[in-house]
Amino acid sequence: MSEVKYMRTVKIDQEACIACGMCEAACSEVFSVSGNPHSKIVEEYRKDGDDQGEVPTDIPCLEEAENNCPTDAIDVK
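The structure corresponding to this sequence follows.
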């Protein structure tokens, strides 16, 4: 039987994002700022655009990225 992966929804408010890189520094498995005007979800976890995604719950750095964002542009549910 295969292991069931539980997912969390992640959204980046592109208007609030200032591309400071705090999210990428905290959680580069999920976030990328390099060469972009705003933070993006890495391709592996994208869903419905590069500012939204579904990320496995076993990636613990999501909360750190959300908490470190100085403009509260990251929403993890």
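DSSP finds two helices and five strands in the chain.
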